[in-house]
Amino acid sequence: MTGHSGSDRVDTVRLATFLFFLIPLVEMVILIEVGGIIGPLATVGLVVLTAVCGVWLLRLEGTATLYRVQEKLNRGEIPDTELLEGIMLLIGGALLLTPGFATDVIGFICLLPGLRRPIARHIIGTSTFSQFSMHTHFRGRGPGGSYTIDGEYEQEESRQPDHRAVTTQQPGPQYREKSGPE
Fold first, then answer.
1. Cβ atoms within 10 A of the Cβ of 54, count?
2. Is the overall model pTM greater than 0.85, yes or no?
């Protein structure tokens, strides 16, 4: 039997529920403490500043990661690390938009390439991701910059036109009257 046992699922649900309540409480305590030190207006400004910086960094890093995915695909390679980095970027962006400083720290870890890439490589190297392989006929770009696509085709018989339909197009090869025996 494969998969997770029922107790593993229950433990995961308990952990998620615990974190769902713990993280906002920790964030509130930190925000109250920081607000007491630097003032409420400065605290709100700092939260907004981290969100704005996070959106800017997410856009910049998201574009760079997408470019690296495209480069690997053009070479016929699997962009495993880049795809995991993309997931980390989404998580980091969401955490930076969440008000609070603890989530901002985790969000910036997910967004900064110097921290994100080694973490993604470590996850790829130590998980079951490294056991998968992909077999494909995709060959990337050919010599003239064109794509090579393997395939088969069949030529179908042309259909007779529907004389009830009114058309403004010039008759093409499929609408020409047959002249003589074929």
1. 22
2. no
Q: Tell me the two tokens of residue 53.
A: 């910086």
- Which are the contacts of 89, defined by CB distance < 8 A and separation ≥ 6? 58, 61, 62, 65, 110, 111, 116
SS3 of the chain: CCCCCHHHHHHHHHHHHHHHHHHHHHHHHHHHHHHHHHCHHHHHHHHHHHHHHHHHHHHHHHHHHHHHHHHHHHCCCCCHHHHHHHHHHHHHHHHHHCCCHHHHHHHHHHHCHHHHHHHHHHHHHHCHHHHCCCCCCCCCECCCCCECCCCCCCCCCCCCCCCCCCCCCCCCHHHCCCCCCC
pLDDT at site 1: 46
Summarised one tens digit per residue, pLDDT across range 21-35 is: 999 999 999 999 999
Question: How far is 128 from 115, CA to CA, in rounded Å?
Answer: 22
Place of tokens 């009830």: 164
Distance of CA 137 to the CA centre of its chain: 23
Residues in the chain: 182
